[in-house]
Design goal:
By secondary structure, this protein is an alpha+beta fold. It has helices spanning 2-22, 50-54, 104-110; strands at residues 35-39, 46-47, 61-63, 67-73, 78-85, 88-89, 101-103, 120-128, 134-139, 143-146. Strands 3, 5, 6, 8, 9 and 10 form a six-stranded mixed β-sheet that branches. It is elongated and about 80 Å long.
Length: 147
């Protein structure tokens, strides 16, 4: 009888340890390798290789009638992109693969929350291994809107 109780005790301990390990964050990946930047002009948007990413120049300013595009590396199948103005989310349309570019003039034509000269824009980009497994989040440097 004592041996059966010991066996159940060992099983309980192994179960607790197993469940506690599955709840730990995966620290095997290098979070610093996940990057996002804003650019203007021509170029692929969204998630891409490090080589493609390196060819795009980041911008610090954008014309109020211009467009911003999002580039991120490394390339992942699942991602989510969120735009912020002065640190506040600009809208609630956070879909997988959405938000690769923002045309400021078009946004101002339909939005009550206008983008004005002097505003600071940035993007937060989530990289996923699968629909539910978040690998990392990267935030672009802020871009100032100018006239």
């Amino acid at each position: 009888m004592k041996n059966i109780l010991k066996l159940f005790g060992v099983i309980a301990i192994v179960t607790v340890i197993g469940f506690s390990l599955t709840g730990c964050e995966d620290l095997s990946g290098d979070k610093a390798s996940y990057k996002v930047k804003l650019f203007t002009g021509d170029g692929k948007t969204g998630s891409m290789s490090a080589e493609e990413f390196g060819k795009l120049n980041s911008v610090t300013e954008v014309d109020i009638k211009g467009s911003l595009k999002v580039a991120a590396t490394p390339d992942t199948q699942w991602y989510e992109c969120r735009w912020y103005k002065n640190g506040t989310p600009m809208n609630k349309t956070y879909g997988m693969g959405s938000g690769w570019s923002l045309n400021l003039e078009h946004y101002n034509s339909y939005s009550n929350d206008k983008i004005l000269a002097g505003d600071k824009l940035k993007v937060e980009y989530d990289f996923y291994e699968s629909v539910s497994k978040l690998l990392a989040t990267a935030t672009s440097p802020e871009v100032t809107v100018v006239e």
